[in-house]
Amino acid sequence: MRLDYLTIFPDYLAPLTLSLPGKAVSGGLIEVHVHDLRRWTHDRHRTVDDTPYGGGAGMVMKPEPFGEAFDELAIDGATIVVPTPSGRPLTQALARELATRERLVFCCGRYEGIDQRVLDHAAERGELIEVSLGDYVLNGGEVAALAVTEAVVRLLPGFMGNAESLTEESHEAGLLEYPSYTKPAVWRDREVPPVLLSGDHGAIARWRRQQSLDRTAARRPDLLHGAQAAGEWVIASAVPADAPELLTLQLACWVTEALVNDDLSIPPLHEGLADVEASVRDWDVYVVRVAGRLVGSVRGRVVDDEPTVWEIGRLMAAPDLRGRGLGRVLLEHIERAAPPTVQRFRLFTGLHSEANLRRYKRAGYRVVATHDGPSGPVVLEKPQRRAPRT
Ligand code: JD8
């Protein structure tokens, strides 16, 4: 890949010869050419800017130096990358896209920006990509050009020592990365999470996935929309702030159940916000959101005086999403979340909850007890069949 940079501050791009891009150059993967834009000025002051037509503060970069640079550098057919606050946000997906190009030509603006005719002209001679680093204002395009370069060059085949580490990265998988630890196992009374010392690669992989999901749900819920749009139910650990929506979902689900059973005595109907807040504290509670709406949940805990029993409860799917497999996905998730000491799962349902009874029996549960009272509950259990350790 060939990379050209047009800038009035060539020294600002010196980092291109260091670290990552530096190695790529020495490895022959890329060739880097930094050009001082003033090379294409012809007046004594080597002028690259002038006052804006229509008035207003600041100066605008003149079109002529860019045009002559384009001609001399023969940029036809190349991808012209113009950093600007109004550009496409730089994402891993855009970096992957740019990594497929043969040639990138960066136009690094300063002042109030570059005369718009330069961009229109570039779009006629090649592929114009206007890119933004983020929703904040910088003084020029050089920093963005460096960031785009690093994000793109590291994706070039043969660049990263082990390609595998690329696929593992956050954003590559559309999620934020899980927390990492290294020796010592205890530092300033802080321990490394025991699962990471267990050697159980399956459990480690599940823990890391859940950490990525929880972080993404807490810090970047917008990133989850992609996964959901792709039809994937993204399950994250509940946080106290989820309690109000959990209560609303619970009432919606159990009002339906009560109507079916014609029985308003079902306990979940009579729980309040405090009960749900306590549940988030005392149980392992998981939630599913679609486009930010909390649409599903389930909880699990080890039964007080039965340490090998994992009690599952409050399995809920928003009434408008019934029949889409969300209940099954939540049940499988809460079973996988059980600690290694668990040998069987236990859950309860209403005597008249035909649909629930059918679903649980399909999932391998068997009725082990029926408590009195017109609508149950019915107690179902299933042995925990652990996948052989990998
Ligand atoms: C290019 C000139 C400065 C911007 C008046 C301040 C990218 N994420 C980003 N924030 N800012 C930039 C950026 C800023 C630039 C130029 C990129 C060229 N400026 C201008 C408009 C307001 N001054 C950027 N990528």
What structural keywords apply?
alpha/beta, Alpha/beta knot, 34% helix, cytoplasm, EC 2.1.1.228, 12 helices, 7-stranded mixed β-sheet, Trp Operon Repressor, Chain A, binds ligand JD8, Aminopeptidase, S-adenosyl-L-methionine, 3 domains, 5-stranded parallel β-sheet, single chain, 390 residues, GNAT_dom
Describe the structure.
The protein has helices at residues 19-26, 63-73, 92-98, 116-125, 142-153, 163-168, 201-219, 221-229, 243-261, 273-282, 326-336, 354-362, and strands at residues 2-7, 31-36, 49-50, 60-61, 79-89, 103-107, 127-132, 186-187, 190-191, 235-237, 284-290, 293-303, 306-317, 344-349, 366-370, 378-383. The chain folds into three domains: 2-153, Alpha/beta knot (3-Layer(aba) Sandwich); 174-231, Orthogonal Bundle (Trp Operon Repressor, Chain A); 235-383, Gcn5-related N-acetyltransferase (GNAT) (Aminopeptidase), CATH 3.40.630.30. It is elongated, with a radius of gyration of 29 Å. The strands form four sheets. The protein has a seven-stranded mixed beta sheet, sandwiched between helices. A five-stranded parallel beta sheet has the order 2-1-6-5-7. The chain is 34% helix and 24% strand. The protein has 390 residues and is an alpha/beta fold. The site of ligand JD8 has 19 residues, from strand 5 and strand 7.
